[in-house]
Specification:
Layout: H1 2-25, H2 32-35, H3 45-58, H4 60-63, H5 86-89, H6 93-102, H7 117-129
Helix pairs in contact: 3-7
Length: 130
Amino acid sequence: MKKFLLTVLTLVFAMSLYSFVAAEKKAWDVPAKYKAMKIQKKGDAESIKLGKTLYTKYCKSCHGVGKGDGPKAASMTVKMMDQTTAEFKALPDGSKYYMSFVGRDEMPNFEKKVVDEEERWAIINYMNSL
């Protein structure tokens, strides 16, 4: 009985570890229409200030100040991308837009919370400034 229980616990642990690793490495499948999107208003001080305010309201609890280390991050199964890295900054702005507002899995859809296009791009401008 002990051997059976140990085998079951080992399998459960292995499956949870696999699902964590698989989820962490899952690439974003960003549709072409989003990849082609261009930021309308580059990151001037006004846009970045607005973006920071909105980011603080909607994003900071999970993403922290861009490092993916906000208070809710520890409870997530997927490790968030560090928005301060060259890898993130190299992403097309349209991809960042899709990832931020359409979302997937644990990243919720924010299209109904942040409805104004200028505000959405202000958040992207702020993230680009990190």
